[in-house]
Amino acid sequence: MLNQVEVKHLSKAYSYRKLFTDINVIVPDRSVFVVLGHNGAGKTTFLRILCGLIPATSGEVLFTLDGKSLSPREKRAQIGLVSPDLELYGELTAVENLEFFSGVRGLPFTLDRAREILEMVGLKGRGNDYVGTYSSGMKQRMKYAYALLHDPYILVLDEPTTNLDEKGVALVDSVIRRQREKGIVIMATNEPREVSYADKTLSLA
Amino acid sequence: MLTRLFPWLNQGMAVLRKDLRIEFRTRYAYSALVMFAVTTLVTVSFSVGGFAPDTDIAAALLWIILFFSAMAGLSRTFVHEEETGTVIALKLAAEPEPVYLGKYFFNVALLFSLSILVVPMFLVMLNLDIAMPVAFVAIVFLGSLGLAGASTILAAIVAKAGAKGSLLTVLAFPILLPLLIGAISGTRSTMSGVSMELVTPDLGLLFFYNGIAVVASLLLFEYVWND
Hints:
The complex is a heterodimer of chains A (205) and B (227). Chain A has helices at residues 43-51, 72-77, 94-104, 111-120, 136-148, 166-182, 192-195; strands at 4-14, 17-28, 31-37, 58-65, 68-69, 79-82, 154-158, 184-188, 200-204. In chain A, a hairpin with a 2-residue loop joins strand 1 (4-14) and strand 2 (17-28). Chain A has a domain at 89-151. In chain A, strands 6-7-8-3-9 form a 5-stranded parallel sheet, with helices on both faces. Chain A has a 4-stranded antiparallel sheet with strand order 2-1-4-5, covered by helices on one side. Chain A is globular. Chain A has 205 residues and is of the alpha/beta class. In chain A, helix 3 (94-104) packs across helix 4. In chain B, helix 2 (30-48) packs parallel to helix 6 (96-125), helix 7 packs antiparallel against helix 8 and helix 8 (164-192) packs antiparallel against helix 9. Chain B is 85% helix and 0% strand. The model of chain B has no long low-confidence stretch (mean pLDDT 89). By secondary structure, chain B is mainly α. Chain B has one domain (5-226).
């Protein structure tokens, strides 16, 4: 069955400037796609359009899963996003955040599942702390817990190793490797280490 | 839409639980509501000088207090998501309808708790008697429900705008006007103790206003939320 992300004639312009024009890409199953470009080139905007968070000026992004084209709602259910713009609830603990996001996704929640995910992202034993009290590196790890909670088919990573220490960077490496075995990774980065994972790249000028 | 209502309600309850948890820890919206309501109530009480005002005026004063208090606090739930940047995580994880339902339930809870606090204080401070207490409670219940229903979707629109505070009042007034007319008329009738036949049309108006507000909001919320 066909699984892929297809970007067709995608353009984005704000009233004052064009970001990118007529982008055409097919990202196949079990691959890593990396978007490159200097600051302000439109990498984050490209990822936001891909996630359905903002509209494109023209063109479309099609997700095909098991040969079926997904609706915008179905698309969102298949995406896990880690981005500097994304924030979790600082007034809730890590476990409460995971409980909430399981609830709104209609997934069953168990403490064991929460502990398993928190252990995977290196936050073992910190599940009952408020996310607002976390360091920036811990918050970045928590974003991975949020993104991986529903076992998404497409993992979208914007500057994936921001604020992370060496262990955190190793965690991102393992997340990317695991995701590539079962789905698609789409990344915006300029870090040579992360670019080395790319099966396909797109450079935004 | 109906077949999806049950999962939406379940997911909406998750939004409600989350918002209540955060509200208990921060008092972000409730303190704004209560401070505004109590300040206005005390001002009104002093201005009438301890004399029981005419029921026409008393009914209008009560709904002015509830309306402006609601405007002061009900937009906070969406504004907070925008200001803290959690809106992206919520948009990706939840469908729009459960978000509306959860925020609506939260605003209903806020307004009910406000009404439970403010309405008895209003009656005591203005020396008012209620001739038809059960019908009066029904009017306040349906009126608060309607305020929450229409304000919730307007709050989602306002959260994306610059002048958040003042914009909600301006946008809400024409939409809430039919509700306020029905609520003021019903409150006046139940205070003065006219026959139940005169209160029934007001109760009917409030009941149908609530139904229309919630159904229209559920149908339109996706466009507001994703825009």
